[in-house]
Write a structure and sequence with these properties.
The complex is a heterodimer.
Chain A (H helix, E strand, L loop, with lengths): L2 H5 L3 E3 L5 E5 H5 L3 H4 L14 E5 L3 H8 L7 H14 L8 H10 L5 E7 L6 H9 L4 H4 L11 E10 L2 E6 L1 H11 L5 E6 L5 E16 L6 E14 L9 H27 L6 H6 L5 H7 L1 H4 L4 E13 L7
Parallel strand pairs in A: 2-3, 3-4, 9-10
Antiparallel strand pairs in A: 4-5, 5-6, 7-8, 8-9
Helix pairs in contact in A: 9-10
Chain B lengths: L1 H36 L11 E11 L5 E9 L10 E9 L6
The chains are: A alpha/beta, B alpha+beta.
Chain lengths: 321, 98
Amino acid sequence: MSILAANAAYDLNFTRTHLFIIGEALAREGRLGEVLNLSYDVLRIRKSALMVIARCPVRDYIGGLASNNTANVAKMQDALISNVETTGETAAINLSLFFEAVEDGRFDPVMPIGYYDESIITDMKQRDSAKKGENPIADAKKGGRIGGMQGITKGCALFDGETMCAELDEAETRFMNLVRGDYRRGTFAYPLENGKTASLLVFPNKREITVELGGEKPRALVKLRLSITVERDPGASIVSLWEAGERERLASYLSGELESVFIKCRQAGSDAMGFGRYASMRFFSTEAWEAYGWKKEYPRLEVRFEVELALDDEYMTRHGG
Amino acid sequence: MKSEEITGRFGAAKRRYARLVRGAVLLLALLVALCTFCACLRPMSVERCGYVVAIGIDAGSEREFEITLELQRESVSEAQTDGGSLILSCEARDVFEV
């Protein structure tokens, strides 16, 4: 510790470090191993610190979190974890899981992507502008966000070991989380035959994954049992036609989306859904697992998704069914 | 004669016991003093302590990495004007050099 420690008027203390933000360029060059290592214990950095990939200068992203002269990082940590469970639109990983993924090779890391949105009007920005006689809220674009932090997190970065290889948007991330088991509830957009889009609240009830390694190529079967609540149905057809083919159509749509997200991960060489965890259960020793070489076999993995649906409820709105 | 010998032996045991008790009391007093005054060895004011809540790492232009630290400073007064966050950054070889 020398450069900042010598110049800052503060004694740096790392025992409360909640967040590691890494620039996208470093992640894509596969240089995470250079910057993250297990010897952080020396600085007393906790392994529960979450990791974020910044798609902007890291300093800007941190500045966006620190709006209103408050660090907001503990709030951000909580929000990130609850976002994964309640919307599924991003991913969460801490240092401990990252090291496990990279060392054991049973799954690949996925990290949330952070953005800096300067257009968001924070309380501080509003106050500063008001002093100059401006009215930023009135001047804000229609639908623009007012309040909150300028540092936002959505979607996720896929990794092949330590190297960032692709990314998933919010909708794709939700399907990935569904298979990983990190998703608890969230709203899915469901395109209807009349061109409109319905909103469905989806709760996973049961998740079963089996991986077979004996055949010509590894195969996996993912069985998901989901409960559906219709939030908004402009066609007013989901509930009325549920037994007349809508159940099968929706199940086929969801399994198709799951498959396309899996194919995207497989093409990138990232076992983001964590099939390696289930494959490793087929081995009785670490040596046998390491000798198998899961990462070499993974690009040949074939996965079948089976989705079983149960209709739970329907919101009674004038837009609903 | 016999009873005097016994008394003498007990007397020595009592003296050994008393020495042991004195030693234990002294040791206990030292431990209490050590615990009470250890904060005086390297005193540090709360306002001098910068808790690093976030560490940012980006590619550097002159050195390997640009390291950004977000510090949360504890407020020592009720006015809370001295607390809040502070962002520091520098270029370095790794986090340990910061």
